[in-house]
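One record is set out below.
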Amino acid sequence: MKIMVAPQKVGVGLDVNLATIKERLPLVVGFTEMDLGPHSFVPKIIDTLGSSYTVVSDAAAGVHSQEIPVAIRTGPSTSVIRSQVIQISPDVGTKGTGNDRYLAIVRFRHRDRTYVVMHTHTNAVIQSHKTLELLHNERAKVTAVAMQTIEDRAAAILADTTVTALWIMGDFNYLPVQDPQIEWKHSPQQTFARLGMRSTNTRVIYLAWSKGVHRRGRVEVIGPGTTRNASDHAFLVSGFRRAPTPP
C-alpha cells in the first residue's frame, strides 16, 4: 500500500505534479491548495487521474472545502466506503494564512480490510521560524481547536475494532521542535504520540500511521521546485504492509 502526501501551490505546476503522481501509482494521495474559493482544481485532478482513482472532495462543506481532496486508487480490490469533509477552523481574516480550514476523512476497503485516511492543511504563520516557539495570535488559537478536533476524531477511529489502520497526513505548517520546554501541546508530534501513532515528516509535511500497518522500505522525499515536483513543499511517498494479525 503506497501512501503519498502531495502538497500543491495553488495549482502551480499541477500538470508536472499529477504526472509524478500517476508515475508513482499510490493507493492514496492527498493534495492541498486545490481550492481558491471561486475556482477549484478538483475537476482537473479528476480528469487527469482518470477512472482508476476516486477523488473525494466536498464543495458544499464551506468556502475552501475543496482545498484538500484525497484520491483513492479504486478497483476490484479497493473501494471507498464513505467520506466526509468537515470544517476545523473558521476564517480569521488573514488572506492566504487565516482562511477557513478543513479535514477530509475517508474510509475505504482494501483487500477485505477497512482503512481510514485523514488529510488536512492547518493554518500557517503560527510558529517563529527562528526560535520555533508558538506565536500567540488568532491563527494559533483556532489551530489549537483544529488539532484537538483531529485528535478526537482519530481517537474515535482507532477505537473502532472494524478499522485495521489509520493514516493522518497533510501540511500542518509546524516545524519539528526538539526542546520539550517550547514544544506546542498540539504539535503534530505530540498529537501523534498521544494517539500511539508513528510518523515521518519533511519540514511541515507529515505522514503518520497507526498499529495495523508497518512501513515498508524507505520513505521517498521528492524535493520541491524540481522537474518532478513544482510545488513549494516536498512530497512524501511511503509503502506500507498490513501487520500480522495476532493469533
Q: What stands out?
A: The domain at 2-242 is CATH 3.60.10.10 (Deoxyribonuclease I; Chain A). The first strand starts at residue 2 and ends at 6.
